[in-house]
Amino acid sequence: MELDKFIQHFAAQFEDTDASQFTAETRYKELAEWSSLMALSIIGMVDEEYEAKVKGDDIRNTQTIKDLYEIVKSRM
Amino acid sequence: MKVENYGVTLMRLTEDKIELVRNWRNDPKIVQFMEFKEFITPEMHLNWFHKINNDKNYFFIIEYDGKETGMINVKDIDNEEGEAGIFIFDDYYLNSDLSFKSCVCLAEFCFETLKLKRMKAHILNNNKRAIQFNKFLGYKLSENQEGILNQLYYLTKEDFNSKKERLIRLF
Fold first, then answer.
1. Lowest-confidence range among A56-60, B34-38, B85-89?
2. Chain B residues within 8 A of A59 when measuring between CB atoms
3. What CATH number does domain A3-13+23-74 carry, 2.60.120.10, 3.30.470.20, 3.30.70.580, 1.10.1200.10?
4. Disulfide engineering: B86 pairs with which of A15, A24, B72, B138, CB 3.0-4.6 Å?
5. CA A21, chain centre distance (Å)
6. Tens digit of pLDDT for each residue in B44-76?
7. Which of B64, B94, B97 is the best substitution to test chain A (most A C-beta atoms within 10 A)?
8. % of chain B at pLDDT higher than 90
């Protein structure tokens, strides 16, 4: 599992946010497009792409894309 | 009275909690999304509570992680349908799975307990976030809504059930 690929999958869930805004250090819940639906979309993406489970608490307790990546990696 | 599922508890609003709700409801971050934007006094709020404390309206406090986080409702129940509404006050839970969990709990209550045939929601046509949220739950735009600012959406039991399994897999 690579961080760059994870960021690409993460960014693909967004429609209106420019891809350049997504880096390992992006505080993703501060993005204008972030919403309840995005939270579920990310959970769904992790399930489909990585066959790993993240929950709402993981979203609430992480700040950056890399934080979430580390959780996903630990659960694969 | 309470409805529980997915770690969420919907506690029916009681008179001892209306001051909490009044404070939430008067907060600018909530007022901005409400049709009624004037300051709500304790007397106004008590009158409102007496009008909605019946079997045509169900207002619930959303409890999660042992905290009171927001409010959800189905109101104006008539002819086997009612209008849904929700707000999350606690910023920690805003824009998270809690909104969906709460809405699924409410829809189950409406369709399984109240035996409603459909739920409805009015959504401003420029509120893309709310439209996407409600469509994910299974709401569909009603007929003849083109050119209307505050558009009417309906959720039938069948449409809800077709989306529910996918939703709860993500909880």
1. B34-38
2. 96-97
3. 1.10.1200.10
4. B72
5. 13
6. 999 999 999 999 999 999 999 999 999 999 999
7. B97
8. 95
